[in-house]
Here is the input.
Amino acid sequence: MSDSPLIDSLTAAVEARPDDLTLRLHLAELLVGAGRGVEAIGHAAQILAREPANATARQLMSSALGGSSDAPPPVSAGSPPPVSASSPPPVSASSPPPVSASSPPPVSAGVDWAAMEQDLGDIVPPRFSHSAEPVRGPEDRTFDVETSTITLADVGGMEEVKKRLEISFLGPLKNPELRTLFGKSLRGGLLLYGPPGCGKTFLARAVAGEMGAAFISLSITDVLNMWVGSSERNLHDLFDSARSHAPCVLFLDEIDALGHKRSQLNSSSMRTVVNQLLTELDGVDGNNDGVFVLAATNAPWDIDSALRRPGRLDRTLLVLPPDKPARVAILEYHLRDRPVAGVDLSRVADVTEHYSGADLAHVCETAAEFAMRDSIATGEIRMISQADMLAAVREIRPSTDGWFATARNVAMFANESGEYDDLAAYLKKRKIR
Here is the structure.
């Protein structure tokens, strides 16, 4: 408690009603009059943060900081109320015109505003903010652009997939004279489909590296927005970014989420997103030369048919679980930084047929857990052994089985157009009928 009951009562009132600027101004005047300028500074600063043009608060701040000896007289209980923070101060013939709330506060000779901002930075925010980095507009999305350092040579096995990529995509690109001779167009895109975890994204990056092109990966989180029209604008901005960085591979991951069948969508906003995607693929609002569209999905049967017509995603490539050479390469990759002794990768690959790349990574992780658990129990560090790898294989089942169960129904009963002939041939080879 202080020696002034009036100040104490006003302080309590301000704490109870912090947004009452008139009450806070009255308290600041009393504090300045009582020689308690340090306390008055905080109250005056909070008033100026909300009403920079409040002349009374500026005068109080100047007095509290010692910039002027003309402090306003203390207000007694019987005095008329001070000038309201929301009403303009009285203007005489010799007074300068009042300052409006929209104009910047005049620089007072007795107030060092820079020093005030530094001293009171923990009490009120600064008057003006200065961004450390320039604000990016929708047209400047260069931070989304990557340079892929991997090529198809880094993809173990999968020779059939590489051959299809070479014939349908990379061959015409690398041979412009032959492309011109045979009238081969580079319009349209390539749709990669297959069970999850089998390397579709890795293949897309490898294609970008093989071409020496920029790489932009677009997912549903980059596009969808709660505000009407923002999703379509985001989609347009990302395609514009790809055009400005041509040659560029634009990878549309989980394309079934962005390009779902419009007949099955209950949301009108999602239907307009699909329409915008069709427009961008056609290049109606911009030239798509040098933009190579790759898309990936686990559910090609859920994609709107308009996306699959010629000139859009008109070429499809089935990405199956890795073959044996690919499985050996994947296992070796995930064991490269782990303590391993006596592991026969070829034998492990033999017993992991139909495992996805993600399944194989899980096998290596589980085998490492077995070895680490024994090391903790015995107090002696031991290496990951063949027994650990085989035990992990017995514990982990291939995750692709569920996908093929669904794909079987599509290949058998919804393949009138022949677009799933590759899938049907694989299922027949595996005797999944």
Notes: The chain has three domains: 5-90+101-119, 142-318, 324-397. Strands lie at 145-147, 189-193, 214-218, 248-252, 291-297, 315-318.
